[in-house]
């Protein structure tokens, strides 16, 4: 029989692995984009007038707490999802 402590530990470890993999994917993607970026100053002068006359409307979202709350919510959802699936399989096995 599998205990609740083991299911909870497996759920937390699974969520940490998925969130860590997601963060590593972002880091590697940023590294690849940084390595392949080639600045082209000559063609940027064509867009200067457009940028000076363009007015942006809307809100600017800053990261900070919003990213932390989303990360925590994703972590809890992954823990709950994995734990409920694992518990269902353990209960079915009995």
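-> sequence recovered:
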């Amino acid at each position: 029989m599998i205990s609740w402590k083991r299911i909870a530990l497996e759920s937390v470890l699974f969520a940490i692995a998925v969130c860590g993999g997601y963060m590593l994917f972002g880091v590697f993607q940023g590294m690849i984009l940084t390595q392949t970026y080639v600045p082209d100053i000559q063609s940027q002068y064509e867009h200067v007038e457009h940028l000076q006359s363009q007015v942006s409307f809307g809100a600017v979202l800053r990261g900070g707490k919003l990213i932390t709350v989303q990360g925590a919510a994703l972590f809890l959802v992954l823990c709950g999802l994995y734990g409920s699936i694992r518990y269902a399989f353990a209960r079915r096995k009995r």
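The chain has a mean pLDDT of 79.
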